[in-house]
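#onboarding

Welcome to the new folks! Below is a worked example of what a typical request in this channel looks like: someone posts a single protein sequence, and someone else replies with the predicted structure as tokens. Don't worry about understanding the tokens yet, we'll cover that in week two.

Example request:
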Amino acid sequence: MKIATWNINGIKARIDNLLQWLEAASPDIACLQEIKSVDESFPREPIEALGYHVETHGQKGFNGVALLSKVRPDEVNRGLPGDATDEQARFIEGVFSVPSGVLRVCSLYLPNGNPADDPVKYPYKLAWMERLKRFAEERLALEEPLILAGDYNVIPQPHDCFDPSVWAQDALFLPETRAAFRRLTNLGLTDAVRATTDAVKLYSFWDYQAGAWQKNNGIRIDHLLTSPEATDRLISTEIDRQVRSWEKPSDHVPVIGHFAF
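Example response:
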């Protein structure tokens, strides 16, 4: 199976790019973030025409996540547990029947947290990461294949950005952020990309400003974290960077994992 994550940065602005990519890449499951659309306005018809089932958890103008799958999920859960007051649409989980049994795939859009000295935004990011950790603990206890796919807004290591000094004070790279990410992976989750390559200058995001794409001034913030049961079936990963060169691109590109499910 081919399972991908992509921060689309506005589904209505990128629908043509998404359709082109779905036809070319043909993922079995695609996790989207920042769809920036309410559920009722999501352009599902052309996606369904390509043979995909569509599940969304959206909100107007901001955030929003989606699961596109060739197989209809048996169960869908919307919203990250742990805070009933959190109205931001950043998490959706699908449970799928696969030949080997059950597969859980989550599409998540972790808060950015900037500016890091903001009294609300950065604490919200860290609190969200703690909630994600608790969720992961519960799901890992099931001992099922689990893939937490999405835009984590976390640069895990210095070699995951073009210049660590540029990001030193950024919420994506602060020591507290990276420590929270390590607490998550230390539960037994694997960074699928880093499990399959130690290449440098391997990025999934390039800012629209200052010629970042042309200079390859990127960062790696889109991740597939896999449970031991999913890691056992991991074959390879790829970052579909050529999508960034398309007309009207997202500032992120798809990250893809190939699994023997």
